[in-house]
Design goal:
With about 290 residues, the chain is α/β, with parallel strands linked by helices. About 40% of the residues lie in helices and about 20% in strands. The protein has a domain of about 170 residues: 2-enoyl-CoA Hydratase, Chain A, domain 1 (Alpha-Beta Complex). Strands 1, 5, 6, 9, 10 and 11 form a 6-stranded antiparallel beta sheet that branches. It has a 6-stranded mixed beta sheet with strand order 2-3-4-7-8-12, covered by helices on one side. The longest helix is centred in the N-terminal third of the chain and has 17 residues. The N and C termini lie far apart (about 85 Å).
């Protein structure tokens, strides 16, 4: 009887290993279990066992299981990219930033989402850097509609308005990672430029998300800095893509964003300092009443 039971279990394991759909789920769950920011505790153990005991009859079913389980392991910022989505991966749907010099020597910087290549990242950042004067009464950084992408060219574009110390941290299950302006510029491939010491206003809305929120967090806690508009989208976390069988990818949330204030941000929106339906006008009024230090 015991030998029969062992044989039956062996056959079940072999059958599971030979099933490509089950293997797909198993690999994804193994990745989540190791790296997912929320992949701990009873809720995760329940979701993990449900995924591993499922019997997907197609790749589509397997991907549905992975997507559902991923939300438990990584939260709302976690998602699955199919093979077709990975192959297409259109990185052309982004705009260059713009700089406009307003009255009283105030710079208006529109900082949109970015998803281009390394060369385009340098061009993106330089579009701002090459159009900023060496002294300003103030600056407005417009992050409205910035849904994210690669944060490094965005931060590099406005690094002259940031200090040289740690501007952002990522906290994962393994170890925290500190980001300073030197690391940002090194990653993009640019040299540091002279700082501009002036008040900074940031504009946000409910489309400001992911890396757009990371830029906002880089300014959090600085004196003479204030945000205006609406609460952000609430995707303030660090994502990492992991390859799955067949060419698809699991984009898993592995960490949360930490501001210099020590505040941790992940799935919750960031409220502005001033909730307003006229953020540009209110930011301009605030800047016009500030003094250059």
């Amino acid at each position: 009887m015991r030998k029969t039971l062992i044989l039956l279990l062996t056959l079940l394991v072999m059958a599971s290993c030979s099933d490509p759909n089950a293997r797909y789920v198993k690999k994804a769950v193994r990745i989540m279990d190791k790296h997912g920011i929320y992949a701990q505790g009873s809720e995760w153990e329940k979701a993990k066992q449900e995924a591993l005991s499922a019997k997907p009859s197609s790749l589509g079913e397997a991907q549905e299981i992975v997507t559902k389980t991923g939300k438990v392991a990584g939260g709302k910022h976690t998602y699955l990219m199919t093979t077709d989505e990975v192959t297409v991966n259109d990185t052309s749907s982004w705009e260059m930033p713009t700089v406009e010099l307003l009255e009283n020597n105030i710079a208006f910087i529109k900082l949109p989402a970015f998803s281009g290549n390394a060369e385009e990242g340098i061009k993106y950042a330089n579009t701002v850097l090459n159009n900023l004067p060496n002294a300003l009464q103030g600056a407005i950084i417009d992050l409205r509609g910035n849904r994210g992408g690669n944060m490094y060219p965005m931060i590099a574009a406005v690094h002259r308005l940031l200090p040289d110390d740690v501007i952002l941290k990522f906290s994962s299950r393994k170890r925290p990672m500190s980001i300073n302006t030197f690391f940002v510029l090194q990653t993009v491939g640019l040299e540091k430029q002279a700082p501009i010491d002036c008040p900074v206003a940031l504009l946000t809305d409910d489309w400001t998300g992911s890396s757009g929120e990371a830029v906002l967090i880089c300014f959090r806690g600085l004196t003479n800095t204030r945000s205006f508009g609406a609460p952000t989208a609430g995707y303030c976390s660090c994502n990492q893509p992991f390859a799955l069988p067949g060419g698809s990818q699991l984009v898993l949330t592995i960490g949360e964003d930490i501001a210099r204030t020590g505040e941790a941000f992940c799935d919750a929106p960031i409220a502005p300092d001033m909730l307003t339906e006229t953020p540009f006008e209110d930011a301009l009024e605030w800047l016009n009443h500030q003094e250059i230090r």
